[in-house]
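Here is one chain, start to finish.
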Amino acid sequence: MKRVFAAISIAFGLGSVAWAAGPTSLTTLRNLHSLSNDQVRVPVPVAFEATVTYYRSYEKTLFVQDGDAAIYVQPTTALKMLPGDRVLIRGTMQPSFRPIVVSSDITLLHHGPLPAPLPATYDQLIRAERDCLLVSVRARVRSADMVYNANSGGRTVSLQVLADGGTIDVALDSADDQPFKGLLDAEVEITGAASGRFDGKMEQTGILLHVSSWDGVKVLRRATDDPAQLPITPMDAVLTGYHVQVGSQRMHVHGTVTYFEPGSTMVLQNGTKSLWVQTYSTDPVQIGEVADVTGFPGLHDGFLTLTNGAITDSHTQQQVTPQPATWHELVLSGHAFDLVSIEGKVVTEVREADQDQYVLTSDGQMFSAIYRHPLPSSSAAGNLAPMRQVPLGSRVRITGICMLDDSNPFETKVPFTILMRSFDDIAVVEGAPWLNTTNLLIVVGLLLLVVLTVGAKGWSLDHKVRRQTAALAERTEAEAAMERRMAQLEQRRSRILEDINGPRPLAEILEQIVALIAFRLEGAACWCEITDGAVLGEKPDAPETMRVRVQPIPSRTGTALGTIFAGLAAGSEPSEVEDDTLSIGARLATLAMETRKLYSDLVHRSEFDLLTDIHNRFSLDKRLEEQIEVCRQTAGIFGLIYIDLDEFKQVNDLYGHQVGDLYLQEVARRMKRQLRSHDLLARLGGDEFAALVAMVPTRAGVEEIALRMERAFDAPFVVEGYTLHGSASVGVAVFPQDGGCRDSLLGAADAAMYVAKHTRRQTAALGAEASEADLVSDKPARSRSRNQPR
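Its structure:
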């Protein structure tokens, strides 16, 4: 018994030490799948094997599965993967709809069979019980369309199918439209990776199956009738074919009322969750009361809703504190239907038949706040409260429900509107400046009253005052129009600045800049000529008949990147607005062109050696992976040549690093001349180089090129007045004979090079007396070190 207790104590101690050492990577997908979002708030390291069930490279979408466990992976690699590939994934887990994996590295192990798809029902999918798993679903095709995909620049297939319980969306990666024939109304079995559609709060709003090809769509039974041959139905009789079988369950939600329109709408909020409820109840419910609502789940414009809501009011108060937010936070869709507050400056206010609308600006962006008028009743008809007047230019704090224009937050920023509950939801934070349109009109009215009261100057003075008043009103309107125009200009300028830092082509951005200049110059003909490049914009047919303003596009180095032209009416006078507008356009064009040039330079520096201007090791590794993949697909071969300069250290020691750098540059030029246009030469570091020889029929072809590169050192090198005699050791490896992956090929070529170098040294040792001087200077007057041996 004592021995048992001692063993238990030792085991407990070792376990405590292991736990104290910190968390280790999770190595099975089943362990990952059991974690919750709360458990991965701090990223959890993972390293596990799984099988690829779906991969869309251009949008970084990857589903993997191991047994009955599956997960979504956000890949950060250019590795090409196919369904059935077995991979090793390293990365961290992060919260999402359910925990996902953000990969740091993915290694292809081998290709194998796909997991057997699990049969799935609509109820299982809408409850996310088959989330990320490879499933098969039986359904009837409702629609089949070819759609343009902006991310890939090509076409894909979008299907909507009807299963027992509801509709399911299918994203199919194929540009082939032949299988469309006869697909409508057909009964099919679809196999793909299961996922959901989500709103900005990561709430599931639908079902989406990811299918890699048409092989995942199996037609079980074709439609009995061709849809195109159906009899024509009168447009006003299409409802005769409408038939719905509703099987939705009644749901029960609980929360605090943050908005209520009797007989129409209610919004409930509970913590970070909020829900739009459609109700016919007209019983009074107060904002801030806790309520229970039952109803049927549904979607409205892609948003989660509860329809036919029945309200049970608890008559207890639990106020929800509005969450302060900015314009940039609200357009990210994470606050749909939440009670929020935002500050902005009032631009205009409009009373409409069913609502009052205030237009505001915040962070340079515009949004609206609306207050819906109460439904008219017999007692309140005609007693609509007057609209609250807020002086234009005032800074206010708006409180209300965040309403979004689109439920899909993954394509772009989503416009929003704040739905107010009452005029109390407008709080003036800072009053409007005294000098505004309203006060000016008041002053004008007072002046008119004084003129009319005094009447001393008679009709002539009265006529004069009226004329001045009209001029003032016209100027006020012109100023208002100018403000609107400036707001449009600022909006265009902001969009151009966003596009400069985005993926939009440079030519389109420059055309936007030219259009901005034309807009500010009242529609003048404007165009841009890029130095040694294109002409963009609207260049008139006969610019010589116009007064043309010219503005160079400067660069940081002083040289002009191009020129902006503005064609104005002949005989018109120059103005400061023209100078200012052309200057702003030139600065924007400079920013756009130099930003793109900086990006190109950074890409070049990441892939090329700065000393020799040939490819670096990173670029070689990438091309090796691509060439291996190509040869696997075509059953081809290619060669890899490893080159190591002999006794390069003596060059640096005897002549200095500057001579050594120039020597390396000349070596790179000579070796590059021995290669073909589709081959690649890279500097691996120091005095080591490698050449990727593509499209060769035999090993002899690779060895012939390797011999040419070795013979490139036969002629002496003249560097800074020194004559250097160099040589190199060369090793050859051929795919797939000497290695099936990048590392094995590099290792084989390196080993072959070292064998060649060892052989060269043995040969040199036998004839050491005959080869003392290897690097000899042709200018003996400079230094004795020039004649020293290599």
